[in-house]
Amino acid sequence: MSEYSSVDVEALNEDQAAAELKRLSAEISKHDTRYYADDDPEISDGDYDALRQRNDRIERRFPYLVRDDSPSKKVGVKVSRGFEKVKHAVPMLSLGNAFSDEDVVDFDERVRRFLSLEKSAKLDFTAEPKIDGLSISIRYENGKLVQAATRGDGAEGENVTQNVLTIDELPKQIVANDFPDVFEVRGEIYMSNSDFAALNEKQIQVKGKVFANPRNAAAGSLRQLDVSITKQRPLKLFAYAWGEVTGGVDSLPSDTQSGMFKALERWGFPVNPLTKVCSSADEMIAHYKMIEEQRASLGYDIDGVVYKVDRLDYQERLGFRSRAPRWAIAHKFPAEKATTIIEGIDIQVGRTGALTPVARLLPVTVGGVVVSNATLHNKDYIEGKGQNGEELRGGHDLRVGDTVTIQRAGDVIPQIVDVDISKRPSDAEPFEFPTLCPICKSHVTREINEKTKKKDAVSRCSGGLACSAQVLERLKHFVSRGAFDIDGMGDKVIDEFYELGLVKTLPDIFTLEKRDADNELSKIANREGWGKTSAQNLFEAINSSRKVELARLIYGLGIRHVGETTGRMLARHYGNVEVFSSAMKLVAADKQGAEYHALIDIDGLGDAVANSLADFFAEEHNVSVFDRLLEQLDVQDVEAVEDTSPVSGKTVVFTGKLEKMSRSEAKAMAERLGAKVSGSVSAKTDLLVAGPGAGSKLKKAESLGVKVVSEDGWFELID
Ligand code: IVH
Fold first, then answer.
1. pLDDT single digits (tens) 272-320
2. What is the enclosing helix (H) or strand (E) of 446?
3. Catalytic residue among 130, 308, 379, 676, which?
4. Total domain count for the chain?
5. Best of 153, 240, 272, 302 for a ligand 1 pocket test (most atoms within 8 Å of beta carbon)
6. Are residues 272 and 134 in the same domain?
7. Alpha-carbon distance 494 to 488, whole Å?
8. Does residue 306's CB lie within 6 angstroms of at least one atom of ligand 1?
9. Which residues of the chain, if any, have pLDDT below 50?
10. Is there a single domain that holds both residue 248 and residue 108?
């Protein structure tokens, strides 16, 4: 960032504008390279657009300062940063997995059962390598390649036609009298190991992005908006399936998968030479072993073997289950392993306050990827205890200095699966899991699971309001609809103010106007995207939110397990903020005490909520923020609940569309009248308020003989 990067365009003088244009030109060009050439953008599209807009605005103010290398002059760099979307006429599916020989035998049996075939009946499968690349669907119309799309989410992918046209070994025009008018060939785009190595070497020389493996390199090379870059990347393809075909399966030149393979080859598509027809599970397994033995010398990455039922009419009958065909399966190679040393254990604090230990490893290559970190999940895991209390690694703990085996399966994060105790250095100490948050020094707690009464696996920082790892999320929650509902202060504004250091903790929201007026900071009204009116509106919205219901305040604190309903229950119970605040301090001081028990006794409130409130108020960092917050607010006492209302003490459920009030208003109204609002109908329900479109809840209420009224009926009832 240059020293003028945060000065509003209108406030720049000529020298500053020239310096900014220079910075922006270099910065935008750097991001273009990262995005277009490296497929590895460093900033969001929004931030990128903001840079370009700033450049344009400065140029408009100072046209005589426009640089020769200005981003606005560059031709060929597309401003649009995405591919067009393409809907797949036939979805692109994934495959189920087999991990063992038994799984393959099961697959054969499953298919036979489905087709009601005897064990002795003939049933052939094709077996071929599973290519570790990215799948593609390429459409031909009247023999001409007209469109290519990535898999995307299976239903919709990206239009990469221009990029796919650069693949040399792919036919662009097919002349064959049995080639269907419309034919979508499906296959895998990949990069060979030697091309991958050469590309990375080149990337190092030009200080470009170095790819972790051939798969990433293939994906990064294909998805280039600047096709001239794709053209320089040696991409290859294996065809193995098809999508939309004119006339459907019946118009294909063969009625088997293996026959279609030959047709694909005849039409000029590259197909994998290791494809074989097998007539039993044993033959499939034997072919799998043969391919596995050749794996290292193939020259391209594969991660298993795919088996497909050979007869296409069988494939049709078998069909699909969820997103995978019943007629095919991927027999995966076992995860790759490597040995290395734990050089350190760091603790990361997530946005919800969860503490995750991470092992820093002596870098090692596993399955072609350099691994230097592995998650250690949680405290128990480090100590050799699994989620369900079982022993991990023979019950051995993990220590800095330990020699460990790490495993990487597919795209899964590397795991430590074993430790070699014989190699443990004599001075290696057991890891001491922190009791204070490494970021904010608040206490670390572990919740008790209400069902199992056991400690939860996750350790959490209890200083939610004070911990910089968590506070951004808390701020966003605080200003959100169910809480303080501050107009004009959405997630983006919070992000902006937090980044600028204007709002770092909850009370800062309410001191913003004064600090802005005192000119302690450059004025918000002068910031890009702001103006006098919008700043004024924001301050007004903040000020009017100072007068707040107790329930919203409690909910707004973002304490774990304390949602809107619990917030309201607590507010009703304690009545005003002073009572609530002193009760919480007593609850926190003694989890066995009377105040704690009184809290648990509140109808419907469980141990988890009470515990979490106690932990929150036991943390002095939070209490200090809370007290400072109260100085800024005018917290309303809770209106006394009307005992005499006709719904007092009743359990009410709202369902269907309410036309005169919102759901939350209806809920608040019912609660104010002393009713308990529930989300589901049971024998305990006293009243169902059903609007138009009510479905299963209405049916259930009727079958249970629960009283049902319309929205109007509700208003009549409560008068
Ligand atoms: S057949 C409907 N054959 O693996 C079946 N897929 O894990 C379509 N893949 O999305 C897939 N090599 O990208 C098939 N020889 C092969 C394959 C293969 C790699 C990929 C494909 C698919 C993924 C599923």
1. 999 999 999 999 999 999 999 999 889 999 999 999 999 999 999 999 8
2. strand 444-448
3. 130
4. 5
5. 240
6. yes
7. 10
8. yes
9. 75-80
10. yes
